[in-house]
Design a protein that fits this description.
By secondary structure, the chain is of the alpha+beta class. The protein contains seven helices and four strands. The protein has two domains: about 70 residues, no CATH class; about 120 residues, no CATH class. The protein has a four-stranded mixed beta sheet, sandwiched between helices. InterPro entries: DUF4191. It comes from Streptomyces violaceochromogenes.
Length: about 230
């Protein structure tokens, strides 16, 4: 017991420091966060305290109201902090990849499976909904990247559905803050073993491409590859 107490004491300052840091970051984008949290807490506590006086149990309802006021403020703080974080990430390169990394269990994400010289990028996520290609960048340019990646997926895993999403605020696009919710709403058509098999096939393709020997320099004119591949010795 004596060993656990110092660890718990050391963890608490870390949590409090993280909460304070999150509050400071949120306040930069949401100037009214302090007033909102105070209003939520006071109103919640006041309502329960008033009910307590009406029914003759102000102490019990007051304690309950205090706990629920803290809980309500924490929920509101979490949502507004998340909204502020998405607002700061909006339009930043790699923002969609950061959301995909935190989408939750059951999904395997691979960032930047396709990219062009303008830094438009396509990320890939595999889950029970199938394969989801998430593009961020210029809406007109990413169409070419998405089309090429979808053709590749159809050649490798033709039996797995492939969805494509473009992150943005325009028509037909998905806002960054709604990306996770949109993906989780996709119909689940694969079982756990099928998801594992799909990931294995995609991983094998990646290993094959990375380990493929490439000749140094241009191939001599008139040179032909031998038929049947190299003979085993």
């Amino acid at each position: 017991m004596a060993r656990k107490e110092p660890a718990a004491d050391a963890a608490n300052p870390g949590r409090l420091k993280q909460i304070a840091l999150t509050y400071k970051m949120t306040r930069k984008a949401d100037k009214k966060i302090g007033l909102v949290l105070a209003a939520v807490g006071i109103v919640t506590f006041g309502v329960f305290l008033a009910i307590g006086f009406l029914i003759g149990h102000p102490i019990y309802l007051g304690i309950l109201g205090l706990l629920l006021a803290f809980l309500a403020s924490a929920i509101v703080f979490g949502r507004r902090a998340e909204r502020a974080a998405f607002g700061q990430m909006e339009g930043q390169p790699g923002a969609a990849a950061a959301v995909l990394d935190n989408i939750g269990r059951g999904w395997t994400t691979t960032p930047a499976v396709a990219m062009n010289r303008n830094q438009d990028v396509v990320h890939r996520a595999v889950g029970k909904a199938g394969i989801v290609l998430v593009a961020e960048g210029n809406p007109n340019r990413v169409k070419t990247l998405l089309a090429a990646e979808k053709r590749k997926m159809n050649r490798i895993v033709a039996d797995v559905p492939v969805h494509d999403l473009v992150v943005g605020t325009g028509e037909g696009q998905v806002e960054l803050k709604k990306l996770r919710t949109t993906m989780l709403k996709l119909p689940r058509v694969l079982t756990g073993p099928q998801v594992t098999a799909t990931n294995d096939r995609l991983r094998a393709l990646g290993d094959l491409m990375s380990n493929m020997p490439l000749p140094k320099g241009p191939m001599p004119k008139g040179m032909r590859l031998p038929k049947g591949g190299p003979k085993a010795r």
